[in-house]
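Why do we care about 3D structure at all? Because function follows from shape, and shape follows, mostly, from sequence. That is the central idea of this module. The next example makes it concrete: a single protein chain, its amino acid sequence, and then its structure expressed as tokens.
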Amino acid sequence: MLKTVLASITEYGLFVPGAAIVVAVSGGADSVALLDILSRLPDYKLRLVIAHLNHHLRGNESDEDEQFVRGLGDRYRVPVETRGVDVAKVARDKGQSLEEAGRKCRYDFFAAVAEKHGASVVAVAHHADDQAETVLMRLLRGSAGTGLCGMLPLSQDGRIVRPLLGVTRREIEEYLSERAIPFRTDSSNADPRFLRNRVRHELLPLLSTYNPAVSKRLTATADALAADEDLLERLAAELLDRHAEVLPGRVLLRAAGVREEPRGGRLRLYRHALRHLKGDLQRIGYSHLQETDRLLFSPRPHLSLNLPGVTVEKSYGSVIFTLSDCLTHWEGFDIEIGGQGLFSLKGCGFLEVTVQVDAPGENGMKSSALIDLGTAPFPWCIRTFRNGDRFIPSGMSGHKKVKDLLMEAKVPRSDRRRVPLLYCGDDLLWVCGIRRSAVAPVTASTRLVAKAMFIPDRGKPACKSGVDMISNPT
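And the structure:
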């Protein structure tokens, strides 16, 4: 068994000699075996730290587990870090299952211990039977290729290692028996209320009558799928670079190009966009990817779709993924412009205002506007679009709704409330970056000119407040 673990460590580059490693130890057979193996790896001389979380789910039994693990620290002469958490209360407060809440509490604790001790990784004791159970559970829940990869020997973020994935529970128990190493037995592992326990005690034994090596076969399948997954994820990242524009809180996909990609590539592209925004794919299922694909190919030009934590909108040739919090909590802005300066527009970009005496012979471009300060003196204000806003566009004599202008400019509905409008009193001077109004144009008689330049934010996090202006030279 030691040779199998060493081969896994080498093949996947789990850690290097002399590394500081946090070992997650519950007191059960798997984690005790992991601790013993890591403590006696030839030529590695690892600096180990034991981490144990008391979930307080089994009364005295939980406390006895903690005391047992403390004793392991004395036996192996390594430091022990413990913490107690009322996982049942956490689950109730957060509306989570006991398994989900326990896992989150454990890994948060392990990360804190790793940081405290300067450890490079956390070693957990998942083995081949755990992997087989995970693959079967995900298969029962309808997972696709990504989910069927199971657990990785080295997690994608490089912080979690699983050296025992190549060995079975029976091999672990035989190893402990041969070395006369004691361990604890968790009574909740026999509780049939948990799906994993039913898979462990009912489904896997049944499957082993068809193939006695079913756990190792499922583990090998998961490993092969993981290798394919790594390649496919790299290709999906290339698709994201090719078809997407990544902005703060949003990802824009260019619909025409995405439609030309194979269906498998499109679905992975949606997953990448969602994971980029959410940080994970929790509560995102295959059906959500299918719905997004149907939205892309719908003949209707404007559609929206609410996914867990993300809103997807099809508008003017783009498919826009936006964090729901960005839509829900967006309050807009209303900032006074008292003179020249650089003003931050809360994640929409910046407005730069400069003043000059000589009147140039043009009235600006899309990104800038020239304004006669004699007709439209400071203070101005810049604010976000509101329903009912109207103005007289430059070159026209009648009023026009700003909403109609934004629709003509093909500004997606989700972006319209982020378009800055520059005002002097009640007069709209400029729909920033889109259209100048007929108010206060620069003419031959203009004495003092203000140049307003809009700089869209294309990659910086949302700003919280405006920047103080430079003094008004007038």
